[in-house]
Amino acid sequence: MIYVVATLMIKPETHAEFIAAATACIKETRKEPGNIAYDLHESVTDHSKMVFVEQWENAEALVPHRAAEHMKAFGRVVVKCLSAPPKIEVITPEKVDVR
Amino acid sequence: MIYVVATLMIKPETHAEFIAAATACIKETRKEPGNIAYDLHESVTDHSKMVFVEQWENAEALVPHRAAEHMKAFGRVVVKCLSAPPKIEVITPEKVDVR
């Protein structure tokens, strides 16, 4: 199992368009084989900071994910919304303590 | 370096109180030795799902964090807000790919 934390800084005026496109992408991504969890969150301290928190069975599941039509469609919107390059952290855990 | 992903499901009517208490706690936590990143995010698909995404230099830094007065003060608010037990994932990475 892996985690992905993807942080995207968006231009305030694109907020509604970004959320709409992300919501459509989330719906399809959650159907993908290998996806465990996939959701988008808005920082409460900086409303232009949008963070995907994802879990996948393994890193291989990311390959078809990135090629999926719903991700390409979302990508076409994202490029218009970003105010800075995204930071995507793909985390392979050695250990996860769940409390 | 470790990550903490803490997911808290809150009662809708406590949203404002929870955000206010969390914001105060975030301000102080970011000053703590060993903290790298600490922020609270609201899911865009479920507004009662609140997710802390944190980075710490090591797991030891969590000990004084949990004992800190600002965390205790936040905890006293959280217990009134939760609609389900929180899920706290402490992730020790084997590997992190940053893109």
From TrEMBL, chains A, B:
Residues in ABM domain copies: 2-91
Organism of derivation: Bradyrhizobium ottawaense
Key word Thylakoid present: no
SUPFAM superfamilies referenced in this protein's UniProt entry, alphabetically: Dimeric alpha+beta barrel (SSF54909)
GO molecular function (one): monooxygenase activity
Keywords: Monooxygenase, Oxidoreductase
Name of the protein in its database record: Quinol monooxygenase YgiN
Pfam families per record: ABM
